[in-house]
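Thread title: Can someone regenerate the structure for this chain?

I was given the following input by a collaborator and told the matching structure tokens would be attached. They weren't. Posting the sequence so someone can regenerate them.
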Amino acid sequence: MRYYAVRNMSDPSLLVLASLAGGDKHGYAMMQDIQQFAGTRLGPGTLYGAITRLEQRGLIRGVDSDDRRRPYTLTALGQRQLQAELASLSQFVKIGSRRLHEL
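Best answer:
Regenerated them for you:
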């Protein structure tokens, strides 16, 4: 049997990647977007900790802006990482759903 690595659906890094898949955003806009699509409120420390880790891994990068707020964007590596995460979650959902129907 094959096991899939499934992260917690409220994992801040995954939520940030998913938010940025919808377009470049600064931190506050990400917090609002994540609250809307995931029903999860990330505090500033959690959000900016995830942003720092994602930047260090090359999954997102800051975008130049004239505004005092710094927007972020997904890198090509970040897009591939998000696709892999979503594929893993999709497989998890398929297996879980199938097993529920077998009960």
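Helices lie at 12-20, 27-38, 44-56, 76-102.
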